[in-house]
Amino acid sequence: MHGAGNDFIVLNGIDQDLSGILPEQWQRLAHRQFGIGADQILLVEKSTCSDADFRYRIFNADGGEVEQCGNGSRCFVRFVQDQGLSNKNPLRVQVAHTILTLRSHPDGQVEVNMGAPIFEHSQIPFDAKGLSSLQEFHETLFALPLKKPAPHDSWIGALSMGNPHAVQVVGDINSAPVLEEGPSIESHIAFPKRVNAAFMQILNRNEIQLRVYERGAGETLACGTGACAAVVSGIRRGLLHSPVQVRTRGGDLTIAWEGIINDIIQPVIMTGPAVTVFEGETTI
Ligand SMILES: N[C@@H](CCC[C@H](N)C(=O)O)C(=O)O
């Protein structure tokens, strides 16, 4: 399946027990030459709480299990419908420690309440304790000594959408150093659980272009949580206004966020496509 070109293998873990699959088996399945090929694998299972209809688990192409996946959540809805597992709309699904509400629209788009963004450093997690200044942060990040203080446009926003993101604004999306800087941002010491690195070009207050170097998967054609994180960062900085059209290399997403109202951080609403490419059986 894919959501705006971010591609997934989605497995039915309800009618069969797939809980014992090892990281190297996920890696092999996701391998583009020696397996089926995917950015992430989703394992759909029975819910373990009364509040949700299903749960799903997310594995990056490197075999690691992670907490959240925006494009995957929309594909989960399409999968449940295609497989005749439920015709409920909206659906509630358990993902790691959160419950998402997902609604399928008549035009095929899927809307997901992604929950509230998290800014608390310890929960991202982001730990700048070992770094004395923004200057040092940039030096360690890009391994380049800065002659002057970091320029305004090299600001990096750190936040969590259930999974960690580092967002920066770039002047031109096509020449953004996604492949050059993505790996060093992903593994930067300030992010103890590693991080997804987003690069956004602002076209106007309601439209951005986005590329993301994903933790555990490399650059993907789109990243749903990355789109949410980029829009939230842009709104917090006063650069964007909700709703925002996010143009990725694989398609468009709409992200809405009302900010913080009466001290309550509002949830992020993501709308976008979810497409089934083929169905089949495989040995693992
Ligand atoms: N592609 C996803 C995010 C998948 C997980 C991410 N690589 C991580 O490690 O946190 C999305 O659409 O959000």
Task: Report on this structure.
This protein has 284 residues and is α+β, with helices and mostly antiparallel strands. It has 2 domains: 2-113, Diaminopimelate Epimerase, Chain A, domain 1 (Roll); 121-266, Diaminopimelate Epimerase, Chain A, domain 1 (Roll). 18% of the residues lie in helices and 33% in strands. The chain has 5 helices and 18 strands. It has helices at residues 23-30, 70-82, 134-142, 178-186, 224-236; strands spanning 2-3, 6-12, 40-46, 54-60, 65-66, 91-95, 98-104, 110-113, 156-160, 164-169, 196-204, 207-214, 218-220, 244-248, 251-257, 260-261, 264-265, 268-272. The strands form 2 sheets. The chain has a 16-stranded mixed beta sheet that branches. A two-stranded antiparallel ribbon has the order 16-17. Strand 4 and strand 5 (65-66) form a beta hairpin. It is globular, with a radius of gyration of 18 Å. It starts with a strand and ends in a 12-residue tail after the last strand. The mean pLDDT is 92. Bound molecules: the ligand N[C@@H](CCC[C@H](N)C(=O)O)C(=O)O. The site of the ligand N[C@@H](CCC[C@H](N)C(=O)O)C(=O)O has 19 residues, from helix 2 and helix 5.
